[in-house]
């Protein structure tokens, strides 16, 4: 999971900037929308990142009207259209539990769990899209909504919600050992491959820590289990010295590495195993060609297949951390790997200088490319605490929420300050098992 460390040795010029500005025109009625050009449209952001919409919001009679379906689905609200009744039916949840809302065109009364509720304006339809009052989302589904007059945009913050949170514990993470119970799972980076492609637990960075009084690797793992946090044993490797190439090309070496990994997982009380093999299938002048990429994809998939069989036999979960599909490393067949593992982490970071917030359009693209190959229920968005800050965490975590992914995985404990952790847990629920 040190993509931000390993990749920087090879790739330091990967960056992308996407900016957009939408200006506001005077609008008094829905019909005026049809005549406007794109330069006069109002923008919408959800969790500090632009939300695409089929028709623009508009102001009418003192009310901001916004496209319902695009916002609702991004808030994980299920939407269906009743053509006969000219009504839109929305099923979602709020702090009180499940909720069904029925909105009817040109009617200022909605049905909320069967009860009549007044609206500030009646829903209207433009180009086949239903628009509703902006404050509907705050009053019925807990989102925070606001109009930013200076930027000419509607700003929506999704409500705090539960999603699977995974933390990585490696390389000076002990200062945050007390935070382990706040996460649903923790991957302990206590093993790696050496330059010969052999599984070891005494590397210079990823190693099994020595006992310090009553604090031992076993006690840390045991405490995690007691708090309801699932501990994973993570093995890391890059391919700087060809160690991964050696491993994947040698059947005996693969079997011995898997023996060491799963024996250690069993003896130390881990509940899962995570593979973090980075640097496979580099494209470019010094990288692999199409045939080389295809070969390494097959080899890595075969290794994961072997690991999957071992995990099932021992009753362990299996996870992989993969470099993003819009990155430089193409040695990962997401679709086949997704069928073999319990979940996977999209390492959607290290696009830029690794000290500034990641470019959201590229993070967004990495998620969408992954979703085309792997069910959302198996995907966790990788987030680097080294890149993000108190202000930027909302947007990147918001993308995991927007696409309703399984959750997010954070590299690594030991890095974030109190402000960053506070910002994170304002947007998502801590592990409730403890």
From TrEMBL:
Pfam families: Cu_amine_oxidN1 (PF07833), Glyco_hydro_18 (PF00704). GO terms for cellular component: endomembrane system. The lineage of its organism: Bacteria, Bacillati, Bacillota, Bacilli, Bacillales. InterPro entries: Cu_amine_oxidase-like_N, GH, Glyco_hydro18_cat, Mao_N_sf. Residues 163-434 form the GH18 domain. It comes from Paenibacillus swuensis. GO terms for molecular function: oligosaccharide binding. GO terms for biological process: carbohydrate metabolic process. Signal peptide: none annotated. This is GH18 domain-containing protein.
């Amino acid at each position: 999971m040190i993509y931000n460390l390993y990749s920087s040795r090879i790739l330091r010029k990967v960056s992308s900037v996407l900016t957009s500005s939408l200006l506001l025109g005077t609008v008094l009625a829905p019909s005026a929308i049809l005549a406007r050009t794109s330069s006069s449209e109002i923008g919408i952001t959800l969790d500090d990142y632009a939300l695409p919409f089929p028709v623009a919001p508009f102001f009418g009679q003192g009310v901001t009207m916004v496209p319902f379906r695009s916002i609702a689905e991004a808030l994980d609200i299920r939407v269906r259209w009743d053509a006969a009744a000219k009504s839109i039916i929305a099923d979602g949840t709020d702090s009180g539990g499940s909720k069904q809302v029925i909105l009817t065109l040109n009617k200022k009364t909605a049905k909320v769990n069967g009860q009549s509720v007044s609206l500030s304006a009646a829903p209207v339809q433009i180009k086949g899209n239903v628009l509703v009052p902006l404050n509907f989302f705050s009053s019925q589904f807990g989102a925070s909504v606001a109009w930013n007059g200076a930027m000419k945009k509607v700003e929506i913050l999704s409500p705090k919600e539960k999603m699977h949170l995974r933390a990585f514990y490696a390389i000076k993470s002990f200062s945050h050992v007390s935070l382990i119970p706040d996460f649903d799972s923790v991957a302990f980076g206590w093993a790696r491959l050496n330059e010969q492609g052999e599984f070891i637990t005494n590397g210079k960075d990823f190693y099994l820590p020595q006992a310090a009084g009553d604090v031992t690797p076993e006690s840390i793992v045991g405490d995690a289990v007691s708090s309801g946090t699932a501990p994973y044993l993570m093995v890391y490797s890059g391919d700087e010295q060809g160690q991964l190439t050696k491993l994947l090309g040698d059947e005996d070496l693969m079997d011995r590495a898997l023996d060491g990994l799963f024996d250690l997982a069993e003896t130390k009380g881990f509940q899962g195993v995570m593979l973090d093999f980075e640097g496979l299938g580099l494209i470019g002048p010094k990288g692999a060609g199409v045939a080389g990429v295809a070969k390494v994809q097959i080899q890595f998939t075969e290794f994961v297949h072997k690991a999957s069989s071992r995990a099932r036999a021992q009753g362990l979960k299996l996870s992989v951390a993969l470099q993003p599909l819009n990155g430089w490393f193409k040695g990962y067949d997401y679709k086949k790997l997704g069928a073999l593992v319990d979940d996977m982490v999209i390492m959607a970071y290290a696009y830029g200088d690794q000290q500034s917030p990641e470019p959201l359009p590229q993070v967004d693209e990495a998620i969408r490319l992954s979703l085309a190959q792997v069910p959302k229920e198996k995907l966790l968005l990788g987030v680097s605490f080294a890149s993000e800050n108190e202000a930027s965490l909302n947007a990147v975590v918001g993308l995991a929420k927007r696409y309703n992914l399984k959750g997010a995985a954070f590299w690594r404990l030991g890095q974030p300050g109190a402000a960053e952790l506070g910002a994170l847990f304002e947007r998502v629920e801590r592990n409730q098992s403890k």
